[in-house]
Amino acid sequence: MGTTELDVIPSWRTTVDVRVVPLADAAGLDGVDALAVPVTADGPVPEVLGVDLPALARAGFTPAVGQAIAFPGAATPVLVAVGIGEVVALDAAGVRDAAAAFAQVVPNDARLATQVPQTEWLTADVAAAAVVEGVLLARYRFDLRSRPSGPVAVEELVLLAPDGAVEAVRAGARRGLATARAAMLGRDLATCPAVLLTATRMAAVAAEVGARTGLEVEVFDKEAIVGLGLGGLLGVNKGSVEPPRMVVLRYRPTGTPTGHLGLVGKGIMYDSGGISLKPGDLSHSQMKNDMTGAGDILAAMSVLAELDCPATVTGYLMCTDNMPSGSAMQLGDVLTMRGGTTVEVLNTDAEGRLVMADALVLATEAGVDAVVDIATLTGACLRTFGTEIAGLMGNDDDLAAQVTAAGRAADEPVWRLPLEPRYRRELDSGIADLTNIGGPNAGAITAGLFLQEFVGSTPWAHLDIAGTAQAPASTRWVPKGPTAFGTRLLVELALAFRPPSA
């Protein structure tokens, strides 16, 4: 195949063979480089390791989740003791973490095998999905070096299924492979340098991904954006030589849909801050990831057909960069958003809410049952929750509960903040309907209050992933760098979505 837009997306070219064999079928391990041997905290050490727990302890190993130690030797496969903690406490998150530890302790082995656990509380299909995610996401790398370095790619993963659970493991493996691929696509998009992934290139990538994954893709150029009256997107784009794009993705299930979910993503391909220029520090250099929300939506929707999602899903990717120039948006400018609301710009670095506001109006006009937006929106949310938890706000308790449950299933946790009406006055403008930024305090909440102005009575939830979009160091199955936090959460949300109760 010749050069395509997807050449900027390394994981799209990654192929992994996931095989499922019965646990008793030793022949299934032919050609495997490394085998994970689970070690519990409340049971004997498996005989195949040839050591007891005190011997493992002398080597620095404890059977806690996240611990792994390889047994070097000439024989293959290499045996790896992998801690899984107490069986009664083992859940999908623990299995995912244990699988990641296994994959990382044998970084030069491309063909891996592991047993899939099954307990009274953890089904084999859920465990299998977690194993696949843990292995593949832990070994993910985005590498533009002329001489690639680091761990080798996983080429084969053999899952040893418990007795009577082969089909369940196969089903779980298929789901885990799909969600892992989605997360890797999301990471690729957020990691790709802005010079390679402009708004126009993002739209082209979306079109190609959509064509291959069963999505309808509609791309709106600048002329069409002007025609739609998307004043927020146009205002942010004023300082750029790169034209903006709005990409609308549509997934339709084969049967009668269980509901219609709208997704809105911030797609600031690079955020300099505009006239309100960011400082020239590490955070500035990370601003290629300011399109993580849009990338998450594209990545999540790319697997909905494969996973037979029962809901209709429409995604809006609002793409532009935010640059300073002689034509850039100025402080004091007033923008007219889709629907007619006027916004006084008091800070050009509060740009994400401007582009998303237009899309929120479009989603409500489309008659979605609920809309969820996702954005690297505020430093205030990073300061509140750090890099492990995203902020959640919304106007509907049922929808907020669905988002929370999806985050729990994906191990991408969220915490709900109040949309305190008394803070709305901080967005009052003397000349427009509202300003684009509040005071120095409660910045995450006032940003949520701003977005709420554009959803009317439609059930709505807002995810602020400013802290979780970038990992400062490698942990568990998340390598250092852009994380695509939210991709797997959105997959879980779409698969289980139901219209919020009245």
Q: Quick gist of this model?
A:
Helix content is 32%, strand content 20%. With 502 residues, the protein is of the alpha/beta class.
Task: Outline the structure in words.
- This protein is an alpha/beta fold.
- The chain is built from 14 helices and 19 strands.
- The strands form four sheets. It has an eight-stranded mixed β-sheet with strand order 7-8-10-9-13-17-14-15, sandwiched between helices. The protein has a six-stranded mixed β-sheet with strand order 1-6-5-2-4-3, covered by helices on one side. Strands 11-12-16 form a three-stranded mixed β-sheet.
- Helix 12 (397-410) links the parallel strand 14 and strand 15.
The total strand number stands at 19
Helix content: 25-40%
Biggest sheet strand order reads 7-8-10-9-13-17-14-15
Supply the helix-strand structural class. alpha/beta
Looking at the structure, what is the overall shape?
A: elongated
Mean pLDDT: 94
Task: Give me the secondary-structure topology.
Layout: E1 17-22, E2 34-40, H1 53-58, E3 68-71, E4 78-85, H2 92-105, E5 111-115, H3 124-138, E6 156-161, H4 166-191, H5 199-213, E7 216-220, H6 222-228, H7 231-237, E8 245-251, E9 260-271, H8 282-285, H9 292-301, E10 312-322, E11 334-336, E12 342-344, H10 352-365, E13 370-375, H11 379-385, E14 390-394, H12 397-410, E15 414-416, E16 434-435, H13 443-452, E17 460-464, E18 470-471, E19 481-482, H14 487-496
Parallel strand pairs: 1-6, 2-4, 2-5, 5-6, 9-10, 9-13, 12-16, 13-17, 14-15
Antiparallel strand pairs: 3-4, 7-8, 8-10, 11-12, 14-17, 18-19
Helix pairs in contact: 2-3, 3-4, 4-9, 7-10, 9-14, 12-14
